[in-house]
TrEMBL record:
Belongs to the WD repeat ATG16 family. Keywords: Coiled coil, Cytoplasm, Protein transport, Repeat, Transport, WD repeat. The keyword Cell membrane does not apply. PROSITE patterns: WD_REPEATS_1, WD_REPEATS_2, WD_REPEATS_REGION. May play a role in regulating epithelial homeostasis in an ATG16L1-dependent manner. The lineage of its organism: Eukaryota, Metazoa, Chordata, Craniata, Vertebrata. It is found in: Cytoplasm, Cytosol. Residues 17-206 form the Autophagy-related protein domain. This is Protein Atg16l2. WD repeats lie at residues 331-364, 375-416, 417-458, 555-584. Its main location: cytoplasm. Residues 117-220 form a coiled coil.
């Protein structure tokens, strides 16, 4: 960039160039006039001289030449004086005509030069006026340049200040990154220690169980050996043998009580004697039969002839939900923010999922949360958790582009539902335990057959899916394009679209499947009546603000209230029938509440936030 004196020097050179051109033009024109004016002056002198001679030579008519003149001519002319006046007259006339012609040409040239001079003077005036205008423009531009230079100076000062602030922020960010890396390393070390401690605890527990089992087996073996030393007579009646086969537990109890066996054996020996090969069996043979039955029970995994496994547990019916008023328990449950929470059907089992890829199961006992189990293997941040209708399985959506299925009580994942190409944001069971629905940021909604871990249907949508809920034959999905879409499981297309203002963050379906609660980023909750497919209520509150794109809101079990958490850590509860704000709870949350859950019995509420806290409300 040129210095401040560059434009001034350029303007000075430009002015000198114009003055130099004007001086050159003046010299050129002056040279022409310098040749013309002396010639014209000489011509005027000659003309004046000729005029005087003409006056002398040409007298007036009828005039007589004076004697003096005549004498003069005679003296001057000599003997040819008679011929001199005529010759001179002719000569002077010719010269006079030539001079007149030259004078006329000169006069014409003078006129032309005068006209040219006038034109040049006019052009000179125009150029001088143009020069004045340009000088005024130059002065204006110089003033503007001065102002721009001042602005540039101010901007440079501001840029220097911003650069200094940026360097300070970058240094601070470097310090924070170093602190973050240190904390991450500490968290990793703590996690490794926790895993090692859990592994040691599990190994110790397994060792204790194994020792206890060995001691129990040794005790049983000793009792069986003591009982096997005696021989008892067993009748050949098939009813008795069948009874022994059908009731192995009673037979084992019989073997475990030597005194009763002795008395019964004495009674048998008091009966008439029969051949041992046909009518008697040793007690060791009975023990072998019982042990075979027990081994068969262990292989099958359930009791022989017992009642079949209960498929669904009974869900308690909530007549009237109780509004939460105070906190019963507060835990730092995860290593990072908690994204999802869900109650089991029996209201005593709770699942939480967080960004640390872990799912913790809790038991609600005496107003406190007791750790029940930790499920690992998600491989990514947990975004949604759900129990099946029986409460025996847990389904979780992860950022690892898959959904994971666990069985309660087992540490390893049972199934992995893979097929999405982006983060899975929602995973819900249908009304049966063998079907599920997932929604993802890859703009698809998938239906799954959990018995075969097979995707039975893929629904392509135009926008990100943030949450899904399921009815009898209905799938409802909330999307990033501010729309709620309805799908029929028996049909290929979308049956209905309801637009809402703001990106949909969560959906909650009432137990009677007649009302739908949606939460969106316009900081409102909306109740949609599914019988007429329109928005029945819109809930707002001063201070309520949706904290993220995955903020979850729920109905109470009796559908009388709507519950949601805000960005400032408060819980807001609205009355569904009146639309009024029933209460707002402020407690231990110091960060945005990501999700809430209301147990099926209506007695407890759990909320989770971005600061790792899980709060139990009563």
């Amino acid at each position: 960039m040129a210095g401040p004196g560059a434009p001034a020097g350029l303007a000075a050179r430009w002015k000198r160039h114009i003055v130099r051109q004007l001086r050159q033009r003046d010299r050129t024109q002056k040279a022409l006039f310098l040749e013309l004016v002396p010639a014209y002056n000489r011509l005027l002198e000659k003309a004046e001289l000729l005029a005087r001679f003409s006056e002398k030579i040409q007298p007036e008519p009828n005039d007589v030449t004076p004697a003096s003149h005549q004498g003069l001519w005679e003296e001057e002319s000599g003997p040819d004086s008679d011929q001199v006046p005529g010759t001179l007259r002719v000569k002077w006339q010719e010269e006079e005509e030539g001079l007149r012609l030259v004078c006329g040409e000169m006069a014409y040239q003078v006129v032309e030069k005068s006209a040219a001079l006038g034109a040049l003077e006019a052009e000179l005036e125009q150029r001088q006026s143009r020069l004045a205008e340009l000088e005024a423009r130059v002065a204006q531009l110089q003033e503007e340049r001065t102002q721009q230079a001042q602005r540039v100076h101010v901007r440079r000062a501001r840029n220097a200040a911003q650069r200094a602030a940026y360097e300070a922020l970058r240094a601070h960010a470097g310090v924070q990154e170093a602190a973050l890396r240190r904390l991450e390393e500490e968290a990793r070390e703590l996690l490794e220690r926790l895993v090692q401690r859990k592994a040691r605890a599990a190994a110790e527990r397994n060792l204790r169980n194994e020792r206890r089992e060995r001691a129990k087996q040794a005790r049983v073996s000793q009792e069986l050996k003591k009982a096997a030393k005696r021989t008892v007579s067993i009748s050949e009646s098939p009813s008795i043998l069948g009874y022994a086969v059908r009731e192995p537990a009673k037979t084992l109890a019989l073997a475990a009580e030597p005194e009763s066996l002795e008395s019964e054996a004495g009674e048998k020996w008091r009966r008439p004697f029969r051949s041992a090969s046909a009518t008697s069996l040793t007690l060791s043979r009975c023990v072998d039969v019982v042990k075979g039955l027990l081994d068969f029970k262990k292989r099958r995994g359930h009791s022989v002839g017992g009642a079949p496994e209960q498929r669904y547990q009974s869900i308690p019916v909530c007549v009237a939900a109780r509004l939460p008023t105070w906190t019963q328990d507060v835990l730092d449950a995860h290593l990072s923010e908690v994204n999802a929470v869900c109650f089991g059907p029996n209201s005593s089992l709770l699942a939480t999922g967080g960004a640390d890829s872990l799912i913790h199961l809790w038991n609600v006992v005496g107003g406190h949360l007791k750790a029940h189990q930790t499920l690992e293997g998600g491989g990514g941040s947990i975004t949604s958790v759900d129990f099946d209708p029986s409460g025996s399985q847990v389904l979780a959506a992860t950022y690892n582009r898959a959904a994971q299925l666990w069985k309660v009580g087992e540490a390893q994942s049972k199934e992995t539902l893979s097929g999405h190409t982006d983060k899975v944001t929602a995973a819900k069971f249908k009304l049966t335990r063998h079907e599920a629905v997932t929604g993802s940021r890859d703009r698809t909604v998938k239906e799954w057959d959990l018995g075969r871990a097979y995707c039975s249907r893929t629904i392509n949508v135009l926008s990100y899916c943030n949450d899904v809920v399921c009815g009898d034959h209905l799938i409802i999905s909330g999307h990033n394009d501010q729309k709620i879409r309805f799908w029929d499981s028996r049909g290929p297309r979308c049956t209905q679209v309801i637009p809402v203002q703001g990106r949909v963050t969560s959906l909650s379906l009432s137990h009677d499947q007649l009302h739908l609660l949606s939460c969106s980023r316009d900081d409102t909750l909306k109740v949609i009546d599914l019988r007429v497919s329109n928005i029945r209520q819109v809930f707002r509150a001063e201070g309520f603000k949706c904290g993220s794109d995955w903020t979850k809101a729920v109905f109470s079990p009796d559908r009388c209230y709507a519950l949601a958490g805000s960005w400032d850590g408060a819980l807001y509860i609205w009355d569904v029938d009146t639309g009024k704000l029933e209460s707002s709870l402020r407690g231990p949350h110091c960060a945005a509440v990501n999700a809430v859950a209301w147990c099926y019995s209506g007695t407890h509420v759990v909320s989770v936030d971005q600061a790792r806290k899980v709060v139990l409300w009563h």
